[in-house]
């Protein structure tokens, strides 16, 4: 006989394994980069200075305006310099007239010399034939000598007048220059600063009036350590066989700030010829970048990346999949039995949310991307495989495009987004130079 109530069975039912999202690493060739800070400087700048003294009559520019070489900028009162030019012109005319008068006098003196020579010959014949006196001959000789002296004096007068003409012409040229200098013109093309001397004020000869900065291209100064330099030279053996390394073939990439997703491409322009600085152990370099949008200003601090080395079939994983503990960094790897293994890994460069795994992960292994908090070492999981792609990374995507077209793209092409670099700085020494931050891998063309 059964009881009215029976106790249900309390059998334990094991819960299903937690669901996690897994993926295989992305494998692709990459270029390792050295990263450091750099400082920008204008490729060309000049001060606008007054070259004559006077009151400023007019300003014909606005602060910040783009001016071209030779454009008028200031007008200094010209009246005194116009008067000085007229005076110099008069002196030239006077000296020219003096030369004409001296030449006319020379012609008259030449005729007098000829007449006195004839008279001297006639009195000499009379004296020899006892038909003339010695005194008459002496008088004719003295007249001839006086005529010759006057002729020589006219030659000296011509030379003096010609010298005066040269001085007058030089004074006229200077007066003409001074008058032209009353219009102060731009010495170079670029953007002009505010004026330092306003209209109506006196400017002395040599006074600084404004500055012009050419920002169409920008220099960036930065340094690399000795070890990176040797690594960079090692990647260009073909240059060292034929002569010194042609540094202008090495591309350089610039990022204005972390919020700027664009990497601009430039080229090395100068390497410090004094060599390694013994105090810092670094070599100073200078790169040049186009600045068509005028958004790079002199004196800015920027991030510079220099391609150093290549990695074949690099293994990339999302940075969010990396875990850390006191023992080091690791991934949650899911094996063929769907059980989780805490796998220690060695990491290389980091870039745009991706990390290069240099040791500890095979290209065909799956690791947990999402749901890491539900994945416990040794426990089973329900893996949902997803496919990763670096297409969502603007830098890595640009790197792939750049590498594909690297042979045809000039090293000084315009610094637009399609010329973005591909990776961050490149080795352990580079990390030290960057405050302990690992560098980032990408797929751009190598230094070679």
UniProtKB/TrEMBL annotation:
Pfam family, one: BSH_RND
Annotated localization: Cell envelope
Predominant location category: other
Domain (Multidrug resistance protein MdtA-like beta-barrel): residue spans on this chain: 218-308
SUPFAM superfamilies linked: HlyD-like secretion proteins (SSF111369)
Keywords: Coiled coil
Biased composition (Basic and acidic residues): 404-417
Bias-annotated ranges (Polar residues): 434-448
Coiled-coil regions, chain positions: 85-126
Family: Belongs to the membrane fusion protein (MFP) (TC 8.A.1) family.
Protein name: Efflux RND transporter periplasmic adaptor subunit
Phylogenetic placement of the source organism: Bacteria, Pseudomonadati, Planctomycetota, Planctomycetia, Pirellulales
